[in-house]
Every structure is written in structure tokens, then in C-alpha cells.
Design goal:
This protein is of the alpha+beta class. 55% of the residues lie in helices and 12% in strands. It contains ten helices and seven strands. The N terminus is likely disordered.
Length: 325
């Protein structure tokens, strides 16, 4: 059975009767090259769904720029694509859903495939990568909990890496903000890595596009002029007051040095830092001092008891003299 683009529709239908081939088709349809899907909530779980008509249209005529896998035969007719979609529903790679509210679905009682209905993907692809990520997360968590027993050189390495990452993020955010400010004053909104902090996107998608430029909205001219005056006034002050600004720069340099040296918020001696992982066992001298202090406390207690006994005897003698009188 050939797998090139010249296969007939019936040949494609027979090819996808094999579940392994059908899974490869699902891998392609669920990839970034596949048809666009929407997100919704179904049974308190985030799912991805697509309309049956759009799925069939894509299978018969993929979107422009989509790279159909060479090992998978193309569909040449709608009936063949619909037959494969029915097979996807029958093998529970997707199920039919109904809209109950905006962004909310529920499982439909009707199981048959229909181009006018919505279908939710149940196929999640190969789980090996997910299992590897889960295993790595567990191992990383265990390593973090064992941080107190790490060798000292690993602790220093992690500290330097953390500080370097913190400084890099700070300068990256500052650089993005300055670029946006300069271009915004000129009448455009320019962002470097505009999706960098978008939590809804994946890791690779967060770096796309690298830069975005759009004209600003109307009515912002006065704001741009005011911000420009304030910014350039600050720059003028920094140039004309070198002593104060130089002190600020020097303070930032000292701050970074202390941050790398680990002395920024240090309230421990160097000896305590070096011996932080060693068990704290009292020395012989400490034990002797403790015993001496306990002996002194016992002596003080004995003296207090003797004074109280003497006082009690005096009180009793006075009482006896009064009784005799």
C-alpha cells in the first residue's frame, strides 16, 4: 500500500484502518501543523475541540503552508475523510461534545460523527516525554529537599547561577522597557519578545515573534510628550549631577558584588558559614562550663533554702515567747 500523495481515496481509507497509522495521523492533526483548535472546560478539565466541518476541510485540503507527512497518504474526497473521522470517534480518539456556555462543553449523548457538531480531542499522543518530565520533576524536588547535605561547591554553583539568572532577568526587563519607551515616544508600540511572559503559551511559542511594532492609539500625544519631558529631564539631571549619579552607580556595583559574595544580608560569621553543615556537638569546655553553672545554681538554691529555714526558726521562737508571756 503506497503512502505518497498520489494514492487513491479508497487506498487512504484502508491505510488508516490500521490503528498505528491512525495514531500517526492523530499526531499530525494534534501538532502545530494541524488544524486550529479551541480551548474549553469539560468536566472541570481543560480540553481542545474543533468543529467537524473544519476537521474534514483540513483533511481534504490542508491549510496553506502545512507540511503533510510524506509517510501518510492524502485524502482525495470528503467521504473518505468523513469515514476516517467516524473511525476516530469509534476508537475514542475524539468524542462529540455540546456547548452549554461560553468556553464550556459537555459530552454529547450522540456518538456519531457529524460535520455540524463539535468534537473534543481525547488523544494525547505519546506519553514518553510527559513521563520523562514527571520523573525529572520528582528527581528535582528530591534534590531540592536534600539541599542541606549538598557539597559546598554545588551550593556555591547554585548560588551563582541563581544570582546570574536574577540579574539577567532584571536587565532583560529593563532593556525591553527602555526600547518600548523610546519607540512609544515616537508614536509606535514596540515590544521585544512580546509573548515572553504569556503563561498561556508554551516555552518555544513564548519567544515568537522576536519583535512586534504597532502604531499607538489616538489621543496619546500629550502623554507621550509628558513622559518624554520627564525622561529627558532625568537624563539631564544625571549628566549635570555626576557626584550623586556616580554614587548611585557605585552603590549598584557594590550591591551586585555583595550579592555574588553572599554577604548582602549576612548575619553569620565566616566560621559559622563554613561549618553550617557540620553537626553542632558541644565541646569538653562547653560541657565543663555547663556543669559549673549547674553547681553554682545548686549552691544558690541551698543558700536560699538555709536562709528560709533560719527565718522560719526565728519566727517560731518569737511565737513561743509570746505564748509564755
Amino acid at each position: 500500500m503506497g503512502a505518497d500523495n498520489g494514492d487513491s481515496g479508497g487506498g487512504a481509507r484502508e491505510f488508516y484502518e490500521d490503528e498505528k497509522h491512525l495514531m500517526k495521523l492523530c499526531d499530525f492533526l494534534r501538532s502545530s501543523e494541524g488544524p486550529p483548535v479551541r480551548e474549553a472546560i469539560e468536566m472541570d478539565k481543560r480540553v481542545y475541540y474543533i468543529k467537524g466541518e473544519k476537521l474534514v476541510n483540513f483533511m481534504v485540503e490542508p491549510k496553506k503552508g502545512a507540511k503533510w507527512p510524506k509517510e501518510l497518504p492524502r485524502f482525495t474526497s470528503r467521504p473518505d475523510a468523513i469515514a476516517v473521522c467516524k473511525d476516530l470517534c469509534g476508537r475514542q480518539f475524539m468524542h462529540r461534545s455540546e456547548k452549554v456556555a461560553k468556553g464550556e462543553l459537555e459530552i454529547s449523548r450522540v456518538r456519531d460523527f457529524d460535520e455540524s457538531a463539535y468534537f473534543t480531542w481525547m488523544y494525547e499522543g505519546n506519553k514518553k516525554f510527559s513521563h520523562l518530565m514527571t520523573t525529572g520533576l520528582i528527581i528535582g524536588f528530591l534534590c531540592c529537599t536534600c539541599f542541606p547535605i549538598w557539597p559546598n561547591f554545588l551550593k556555591v554553583f547554585v548560588w551563582y547561577m541563581s544570582v546570574s539568572l536574577l540579574i539577567f532577568i532584571f536587565f532583560l526587563v529593563t532593556f525591553r522597557a527602555l526600547i518600548f519607551l523610546f519607540v512609544w515616544i515616537a508614536g509606535y508600540e514596540c515590544w521585544v519578545l512580546p509573548n515572553l511572559f504569556d503563561e498561556t503559551l508554551g516555552f518555544c511559542e513564548s519567544f515568537v515573534p522576536v519583535i512586534s511594532v504597532e502604531p499607538t492609539k489616538e489621543g496619546q500625544l500629550m502623554y507621550r510628550v509628558g513622559i518624554a519631558v520627564a525622561f529627558f529631564s532625568f537624563c539631564y539631571w544625571a549628566v549635570t549631577q555626576p557626584s550623586e549619579f556616580d554614587g548611585f552607580v557605585k552603590g549598584q556595583g557594590d550591591f551586585i558584588k555583595d550579592l555574588y559574595a553572599g554577604t548582602l544580608l549576612s548575619d553569620m560569621s565566616q566560621k559559622d558559614k563554613e561549618n553550617i553543615d557540620k553537626p553542632k556537638m558541644p565541646s569538653l569546655e562547653d560541657l565543663l562550663k555547663k556543669l559549673d553553672s549547674e553547681d553554682e545554681e545548686e549552691k544558690e538554691l541551698n543558700e536560699e533554702e538555709a536562709a528560709e529555714a533560719l527565718l522560719d526558726s526565728l519566727v517560731e521562737d518569737e511565737d513561743e515567747d509570746i505564748d509564755e508571756d
